């Protein structure tokens, strides 16, 4: 095995979709990538195999990012293998109910809010010590355009991601003096993801018609924005949100 080089990036929920595309791209740009997954071990190992076949370095690590103890164990595994985490891409999708406010229970809305923020809080707490010690770090959270622009049935996801986006700004303000940037990538609808599966064909056609660039995003489109935020060259952007939606929502 070649000597480990390059910054270490932890991508949560990286066995498929946006997370997998991001893991592959960061690896292609020379980072050592941790492919975190919850249940899809085969899919995560496939992502690692793809990265290694392309000449990159990656390992798959299982952890439920809603559980602080699981995150702590994952970070210990990463430190044993490669040392501290330089880049955090928090992409893991916490399950949520797709229904109207009228039909929703507090357990469904409040549960999504709690799980979303618990995961972001815990994984951020876990990576900050090493970033602080070295005076450099990149944190990127995956949001959604639904945090600002409501869509029918998406109140749980949209509200939780809006909270995440504001959380990101507060963290950015606090850790900026330590040399750590914190940003959000907020995609519109993305093909080949679990979120896309909740849209029927008619809804997808309406979304495409409302998009100036004439199509929905691909996972690689979102990964490009994440990789930009993760890079060493991007030294002076923090507390921002990148809307990756083909112009569907301009704000």
From TrEMBL:
GO molecular function term, any single one = oxidoreductase activity
Which branch of life, at top level?
Answer: Bacteria
Could you tell me what this protein is called? SDR family NAD(P)-dependent oxidoreductase
Q: Which organism is it from?
A: Streptomyces yanii
> Which InterPro entries does this entry report, sorted A to Z?
NAD(P)-bd_dom_sf (IPR036291), SDR (IPR050259), SDR_fam (IPR002347)
- E.C. no: 1.1.1.-
Family membership, please give it: Belongs to the short-chain dehydrogenases/reductases (SDR) family.
Q: Which UniProt keywords apply?
A: Oxidoreductase
- Return any one Pfam family short name: adh_short_C2
């Amino acid at each position: 095995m070649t000597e480990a080089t390059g910054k270490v990036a932890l991508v949560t929920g990286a066995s498929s979709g946006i997370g997998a595309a991001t893991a592959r791209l960061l690896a292609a740009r020379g980072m050592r990538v941790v492919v975190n997954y919850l249940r899809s071990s085969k899919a995560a190992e496939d992502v690692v195999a793809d990265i290694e076949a392309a000449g990159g370095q990656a390992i798959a690590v299982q952890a439920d990012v809603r559980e602080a103890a699981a995150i702590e164990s994952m970070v210990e595994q990463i430190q044993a293998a490669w040392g501290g985490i330089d880049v955090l891409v928090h992409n893991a999708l916490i399950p949520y109910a797709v229904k109207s406010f009228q039909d929703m229970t507090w357990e469904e809305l409040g549960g999504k809010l709690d799980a979303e923020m618990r995961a972001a809080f815990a994984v951020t707490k876990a990576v900050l010590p090493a970033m602080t010690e070295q005076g450099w770090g990149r944190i990127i959270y995956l949001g959604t355009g639904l945090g600002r622009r409501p869509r029918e049935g998406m109140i749980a996801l949209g509200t939780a991601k809006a909270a995440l986006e504001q959380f990101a700004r507060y963290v950015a303000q606090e850790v900026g003096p330590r040399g750590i940037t914190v940003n959000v990538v907020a995609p519109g609808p993305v093909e080949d993801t679990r979120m896309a599966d909740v849209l029927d064909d008619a809804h997808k056609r309406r979304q495409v018609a409302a998009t100036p660039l004439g199509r929905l995003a691909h996972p690689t489109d979102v990964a490009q924005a994440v990789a930009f935020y993760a890079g060493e060259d991007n030294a002076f952007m923090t507390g921002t949100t990148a809307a990756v939606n083909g112009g569907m929502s301009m704000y």
